[in-house]
DNA sequence: GGATTTGGTTATCAAATGATAAGTAAATGG
DNA sequence: CCATTTACTTATCATTTGATAACCAAATCC
């Protein structure tokens, strides 16, 4: 396998995913939420409950800025903090009911848009697509570190 | 195929790609280039030559802002504009030699980081990965519209 | 050939984001 | 038990980004 071919494909592929995701999420962002906040909500939605430090790490933003943005999201009642009983320095963040609702709706819109791309795919095509995602997710785009 | 499973996987997958790409490109950004500018350079690198309107469309930023940022990149000698002889309103953008060099280096760093994720993959694994990218790129994450 | 559209520019403003310094309180480690 | 580290907060500032209005010149459209 030619290494450069692989790299070129990786670059092109990640760029494409990035762009399509960008298109898909255009206009769905809940009222009054900034892009960074949306991205945090998305991360919380799939990883909750999660500490501020973890959010800071994974979203690659400084703790002060993470703290500020989470505070804003809490003010908007989209998420809430609660103490870790075993370590009182730590605070976990989770979505509120409203936050769940908002993100569910956002994900629904994204889903609907993806659906238009998949509407003339056969059952077999879908199987293949799911398999491809599993392969790449587990082998290349894993995020645990 | 359960539609929700597919959506959940799509959401999780795009989030993972996004995050990994973010990690991969951390710290590689050439001196004095902002995130938006880097993203534009990346787009130009894989799509050149390309008009300002097209960049504006695909990067989903307004023409005034596109114009401003491209101007900055031209000032930095990373890209250059030239006229379309058949339509004198249009201007194409392409990387300069220096721009090519800078992006090649950036892509090289990203490639190297991906390599560490793939170092214990067999030839067969790599084939499978490339195939998976081809499937997803052509069926789900195509960007021509 | 005059109105409209297309492609792009300049200027300006507000908001979002990133970075830094300085602080608190709880846990951990000799 | 004192020093250090971890988890998080508050405040502040500069830069980036997004949005809008007003403009020019070339192309196109009746």
Automatic annotation (TrEMBL), chains A, B:
Which keywords are on file for this protein? DNA-binding, Transcription, Transcription regulation
Domain of life (superkingdom): Bacteria
Q: Which GO terms describe its molecular function?
A: DNA binding; DNA-binding transcription factor activity
Name this polypeptide is given: DNA-binding MarR family transcriptional regulator
Record-linked SMART domains = HTH_MARR (SM00347)
- InterPro entries given for it? HTH_MarR-typ, WH-like_DNA-bd_sf, WH_DNA-bd_sf
For the keyword Methyltransferase, the answer is: no
What are the HTH marR-type domain coordinates in residue numbering?
3-138
PROSITE patterns given in the database record: HTH_MARR_2
């Amino acid at each position: 396998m030619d290494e450069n071919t692989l790299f070129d494909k990786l670059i092109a592929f990640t760029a494409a995913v990035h762009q399509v995701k960008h298109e898909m999420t255009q206009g769905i962002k809940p009222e009054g939420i900034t892009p960074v906040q949306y991205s945090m909500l998305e991360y919380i939605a799939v990883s909750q409950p999660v500490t501020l430090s973890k959010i800071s790490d994974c979203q690659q933003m400084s703790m002060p800025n993470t703290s500020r943005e989470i505070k804003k999201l809490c003010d908007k009642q989209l998420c809430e903090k609660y103490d870790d009983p075993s370590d009182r320095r730590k605070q976990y963040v989770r979505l509120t009911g409203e936050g769940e609702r908002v993100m569910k709706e956002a994900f629904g819109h994204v889903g609907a848009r993806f659906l238009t791309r998949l509407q003339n795919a056969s059952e077999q095509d879908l199987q293949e697509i799911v398999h491809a995602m599993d392969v790449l997710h587990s082998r290349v785009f894993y995020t645990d570190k």
